Amino acid sequence: YEPILKEFEQRTGIWVELETGGTVTLLERIAAGESGADLMFGGGADSLSAYSACFAPYVSEYAGDVAPEYDLGGGIWTPFSALPVVLIYNTKLVEPEWLTKWSDLLEDRFRGKIAFSDPGISGSSFTGLVTLLYALGGEPDDVMREFAANLEGIQLDSSGDVLTCVAGGTDWVGITLEESALKQIAAGKDIAMVYPTDGTSLVPDGSALVKGAAHRDNAQVFLDFTVSRDVQQLLPDQFYRRSVREDVAPGGELIALEEIPMVDYNISWASENRDRLLMTWAFYLGGEAVP
Q1: pLDDT digits (tens, 9 = 90+) for 159-189
Q2: CB–CB of 87/194 below 8 Å?
Q3: Rounded distance between C-alpha atoms, residue 71 and residue 122, angstroms
Q4: Which is the most buried residue in 57, 167, 176, 273, by most CB within 10 A?
Q5: Which distant-in-sequence residues (6+ apart) come within 8 Å of 23 by Cβ?
């Protein structure tokens, strides 16, 4: 985000005050009226949708350039990039044929060796959990119970820890986003990436205008900037991310979406059932239930 914020400031003369944190942590602060923020930059569309009461509708001037598969959320969020969920494994500890699909995570060989961050904190982890539910089918509660058992009740505090633990061999396999995995692979880490054969999701992250924002006009300028062609072209060129615009092609490191099996991920269902899913998940992990 830093190069994008710097470019925005240089082009517009509008100063950006940044506060970082986990998706859910930031959304909770906005919901409590404690953030003083004008907008939320980042976070999966399913997480933003779950907190839609905190945001004011705004449709970007570039909305017509966004590919039709990326939902605009009724103007509640402005999509920024498309982020497939992927599986990763440590290349020194895992044979490639051991991890090809979501159901492999339930095998005994990976018991206690799976890196997964708390979906009550990490928006990308929540998307990963719901993707697993869609890919495996069956009763969500049964799937979560079995997956939690294979985690042996252990989950990480942040999504970044997933990459660290798998690269370092503390865990053998993990669930993360395509962009994060490709960055680590490019940095020479002992990680390989898998697009699950039983399907994955392509939920966009995005930005949203906070209801009652003190600097609404400036925030709208920023929202337009994030989906402008110049910024969207930076995503595949520099950041291993997929643009949401129709006129920006994937970069050389990104395979065509047509080659990736997809589940039918329903953003509305995920956001509407978020609290119930997280309460059930916390129960099976043996932690505190999410209120």
Answers
A1: 999 999 999 999 999 999 999 999 999 999 9
A2: yes
A3: 21
A4: 176
A5: 42, 43, 44, 47, 121, 122, 123, 124
